Amino acid sequence: MTVKFPKLYPWQQDVFDAVTNDNGAGDFYLVRARRQCGKSVVAIAIALFYAFKEKSIGLIVEPTLKQARRVFKQIISAVGGEGSPILKSANSIMLTIEFVNGSEIGFISDEMDDSAKRGATVKKSVLILDEGAFLSQETYETLQPVVDVSNAPVLIISTPLFKDGEYYERYKRGSAGDPHIHIFNWSDYDTSALLSAEKLEYYRQTMSPLKFKSEYLGEFIDENSYIFGDIFKCVGGYSTKSAVYAGVDWSAGSDGDYTVITFLDEDNHVVGLKYWKDFDAVDLVKELATEIKAHSKLRRVKIEKNSIGKIFYDMLKRQVRQGLLLPFVTSNESKREIIESLISAFQTGEIQVPNEPELIKELQHYAMEKTPSGKYTYNASENYHDDFVISLALAYSNAPSHKNTENKIRIALI
Fold first, then answer.
1. Per-residue pLDDT tens over the stretch 379-399
2. What are 92-120's pLDDT values in tens digits?
3. In Å, what is the CA distance from 103 to each residue of 100, 107, 155, 173?
4. Judging by beta carbons within 10 Å of its beta carbon (0-12, 13-18, 19+), is residue 188 exposed, middle or buried?
5. CA 359/CA 261 separation, integer angstroms
6. How many other CB atoms sit within 10 Å of the CB of residue 223?
7. Residue 105 CB contacts under 8 Å (≥ 6 apart), including other chains
8. Global pTM value
9. Measuring CA to CA, which residue among 155, 188, 219, 171 is closest to residue 24?
């Protein structure tokens, strides 16, 4: 059977040629890419090139399990589907693809635990770190021995993000002349064949400026959050004072979502943060009630009362003292109000949060878009969650000191 590779655009072809060159073993090939310019296509083409060249084991690393599954399916589709004669097996649980020549391509995600990453293997193939700017330092460090042992070329391909982290540091070293890091900046190419000027202008008008700068101009961001600004000036330890406000974001436990409760003291410093995933509803309410009762000076606990939240709210109301719970009905307008208040808190330093990895990640990747009517909507970026952000925003919205911040925030975002 003959497998025909797609025709690559010049920016893709240059990367393909460099990574598949036999002289590049052990080197790093770092691609700084805009969105919608064919990152996945070139990564899949390179992975399949090594798989067909000889018996080998390749590895593709994604930020999330959802992304890993998507690329897994894209590769199967690229070779003709599950019935393809060159496919020996495709395990959607283990996320491994085996070809009739004995080659394998495996997938792992940044969300997997350390043991799964340490068991990864690359042999006579390539290690691909997709969306490398979104991968944790731990993942880079854990996979380094894989590269050292196999002397495999490493393709790190990503839209740029903030001016920190391993992806940015390696980009700086490569730009400074490190002979083992080869830089490809797709912003230097004319990519209008896939990203037209009209599309670019549409995204400019509808996205938050920082997200547009990162994803569609392909530039690194000085700030460390899309909309909250310099969040790290507000990062510290947990407060030892009494909690007076709390906020709860419910989840059914699907697709990696958490149920989160955040406790704040009178100074808007986080006192405690608890979260659960994949919990039975009855047990979850009992856990929440226990946490709430442990903070005897609580004045208000604001809780979502939409859809599944109404069921949980009614169950919880029967287990805590009367008048403590304050229902919150989520709409575009009500959500905008609590998020813009939280943005103000980070801009003015009126809040302190702990250095909890999931919370920090959600704060960094929370984004804004503008609707055709000119209103702003806030949501987690693609492949991210917002449970910790919403819980924090609900807790902070209880405090009486930050009303009517809309105009100040709107000016800052335009």
1. 998 878 899 999 999 999 998
2. 999 999 999 999 999 999 988 888 888 88
3. 7, 14, 19, 33
4. exposed
5. 12
6. 16
7. 47, 51, 57, 58, 59, 60, 75, 96, 97, 125
8. 0.78
9. 155
